UniProtKB/TrEMBL annotation:
Its cofactor is Zn(2+). GO terms for molecular function: metallocarboxypeptidase activity; zinc ion binding. The active site is at E123 (proton donor/acceptor). Residues 1-153 form the Peptidase M14 domain. It comes from Mionectes macconnelli (McConnell's flycatcher). It comes from the Eukaryota. One of its GO terms (biological process) is peptide metabolic process. This is CBPZ Carboxypeptidase. The keyword Metal-binding applies. Keywords: Carboxypeptidase, Glycoprotein, Hydrolase, Metal-binding, Metalloprotease, Protease, Zinc.
Amino acid sequence: LFSSGFQVAPETKAVMKWLRSIPFVLSASLHGGELVVTYPYDYSRHPMEEKMFSPTPDEKVFKMLAKAYADAHPVMSDRSELRCGGNFVKRGGIINGAEWYSFTGGMADFNYLHTNCFEVTVEVGCEKFPLEEELFTIWHENKGALLNYMEMVHRGIKGIVSDKFGNPIKNARISVRGIQHDVTTGN
């Protein structure tokens, strides 16, 4: 991911620097062209394999986050296979990114591997480039789901890692037994 031959745009570098400087824990990237929520990994564990399920050690958390969005979206939660995004109905409106299609250099994978931030990608509608008059409907279809997703930031363990004097410890490594992915404390 982000190997030496990969060109990183200046705005992407700026976002990467920003993500490393502030201890974000949750984010979403909004795209158009389908109606589904994808979660890491987006890059297949076996680069020559297309559509290969590539879970992170936090697969259960990512599925919960993706479902929090999809279940609160009025169209994604619609069980009709004839609707926009209907091919994801049997999956509950969510899919592992690499299982849908594998690509390298995605921000969700970067965030998971290099920051404490868990990111999903939300395909907000089947039109890649919606018309201006469609934006109001798209916003209203996604507003509640976005708010529901943002509330997920309150799930999990919260607290302060401190030394014996009560001083916060910056960059302390937090490990959870059974999950091969550590996070670090912020400031």
